[in-house]
TrEMBL record:
A single BP term in Gene Ontology: response to antibiotic
Keyword Isomerase annotated: no
Descriptive protein name: Multidrug export protein MepA
Keywords (A to Z) from UniProt: Antibiotic resistance, Cell membrane, Membrane, Transmembrane, Transmembrane helix, Transport
Keyword Cytoplasm appears in the UniProt entry: no
Amino acid sequence: MLVSNPIMLFFKYVIPSMLGFLAVSSASIIDGYFVGNYVGSVSLAAISVSFPLFNLLFGFALMFAVGSSVITGKLMGEGNKEEASNVFSKAIYIIVVLSISLNLLLYLNVDRVLDLINVKDELRVETLNYLPIILKFLPFLMVGITVDYFVKVDENPNLSFLALVISSLVNIILDYIFIVKFDWGINGAAYATGTSQLVILLVLLPHFFMKKTTLRLIKPRGSFLSIFNALKNGSSEFVNESSVGITILVFNYILLKTFGPLGIASFTIVGYFITISIMTSYAVSDSLQAIISKNYGAKYFNRMKSFLKLGLISILCVEIVLTLFVIITPESLINIFINDNDIKTKEITINFISYIWPAFIFSGLNMLSSAYLTSIQKPLYSGLIAIMRSFIFPMIFIFILPFIFGNVGIFIALSCAEIVTFIFAFRFFMKNRPSVLAKFI
């Protein structure tokens, strides 16, 4: 990783990661297709209502995964393989205990959570059919995502890709069986998604028992406080995911109040397009973290610059193509998820898409900046970018813009948040770009 050709190494990590995340995105979209067409728009809304809890739990997993894997990557770059395995082992043991505890707590308080966010009537019934089932499986996802980061740091990105692809295929197949064939409704979607999350962990775990593996599960040495101290470097990911959860919660509340359950359904459909955008950019940014952290440990600043340029070009190309596709064929894309007679949901969704497309490009640039700052252990800047794009500015704009522009203000809030965040992200990056870091060596 420290001597390979930058372009070849970049694509060795990015292509499997991007294909894997696209597989996950496509599975999510197909999930929406089955639910929207065979169950109904209210069920789509129920999935959206459940998202904030997923984001919170997923954020905890990412915090452990990113914070500890970046430290592990730096230790491996310095040649300290024994301590790298020690950090890895501590992180895995902690996330296992934490994931089980958090999901059990939420599972026992589902009704109270739905009371808190004012979910009632048919939407509440559908959410109670979906959410408790997913919570039983989420510990497997949280541990699996953490393991996935260490697999990539241990230079096996193809296995990470394979795990995501197999998981996606399982989700799609089970969606068809449980929803279409067995007619289990939204329960079937929950069981299909949960089983696919378990598959990720089952595919990844054997890596750490292979002879060529550098990282191994060992009996931890020293205080576990070292892991919690390392978590500050992954705090931006937790802030980002949990803030996204809160933002979705607020958007759902406003859309429910303004448009009813169909408003949430339209936001869910738009969310599928946003997911593709975010997943592709995240795949590039996520892959760069493992590469840059090792080169940063070895002080190879010119190579870091090369990787960043490749990442920037890749994200811009993907996001521009996606944006054009969504702008040119919005109605055809929406028809994938809802029936032709669901005219009101379609109308709201088309309006949403026509205003939200700038968020695709700027979110990718913001994520690249945040990932880079995390990889060079600048958690404050990375965290600021994360919380600005996922919480501070969306909250400001969602409450202010509707007073100025009416319902259009709801639709443009996310785009405005990403654009303003980019101004700050660009400044943070310029202060910490590789050429600046090299001057302090």
